[in-house]
Amino acid sequence: MIDAARDARERLDRAVSDQFGEVVWSPTLETIASPSWVGADSLFFEGSAPDGEPLLARVLQPAAMIRVDTTAMFTAMTAAASAGLAPRLLFHDAAAGVCVQERLGEEWHVGTLYRFHVDPAAWRASLEARRRFRELAVDLPVVNVFDQVAALRDHVEKHAIEVPSPVDELVGLVEEARGIVSPGLDPVPCHGDAASSNVMMKDGDVRLVGWTQAACMDPLEEIGSILTEFAPMIASPQEAFAAAWGRHDPVALARAQLFGLADNVRWGLIGSIARATEPDSPVEYQRYGHWRLFKARFAVASGESERWMREAS
Hints:
By secondary structure, the chain is of the alpha+beta class. The protein has twelve helices and ten strands. It has two domains: 4-102, Phosphorylase Kinase, domain 1 (2-Layer Sandwich); 109-312, Aminoglycoside 3'-phosphotransferase, Chain: A, domain 2 (Alpha-Beta Complex). The strands form three sheets. A five-stranded antiparallel sheet has the order 1-2-3-5-4, with helices on both faces. It has a three-stranded antiparallel sheet with strand order 6-8-9, covered by helices on one side. A two-stranded antiparallel sheet has the order 7-10. The longest helix is centred in the C-terminal third of the chain and has 28 residues, at 250-277. The radius of gyration is 19 Å and the shape is globular.
């Protein structure tokens, strides 16, 4: 059995030895995924530079390294930081899956649905930050959630990973949705993952973190991820869409909801793969994956997915 924390620390020490060799790193940010995904794709370490600057080191977990384009991730983080949308990136090694960022002060808090509920200005600010990133000129690969779902399903089959029985039906539905929303809008740079924990918040100000899904994509794909996170707990689908997109558009809303359906299936598969890759991890990856698949199944059972397909055509 591999000690994940020790392995991550050794990877960190090897990657940063030249630039941050004098820093004493300590584990931080306990990962919790029941059913949230707070920090679950990485292990984090904090330290201080010789000049006293607080640092946060991030080491991607093995399951994340399977699916994450770390070059795109760090490119997006660098561009976002330059635009004041993310913490400053001080070091990165794409091959090692390691980076060092500025560590935000204690006045900054991890976004949660509850915090967005009591502070509506914060979730709207997170949408604005995502919109601003979409306007940047960032050289990122073009991806789409449909190809990712297909690739994840192939990985599951190749490695004989056990997944819940409804997965094949849902993957088939995702392929049907692909035919409806394609070819779609021109791809633009996107953060790509609207999980509340990918937002750091302070007095109405926000910084985007995470970035494992960063790529160029149909902007409605990112909006779909936003809908799966915020609707209906924070706002109705119509209100959340209008806030994220800037206007009401029933056809675009339905297309975004189909992207959101595919997003739920993607994360359901990711949860199963992560559990199989890291079976001794205390993080309950599979529970999170089942939660996302439940949301996809509910959309089917309730007839919502069928309605979205009609309205998106």
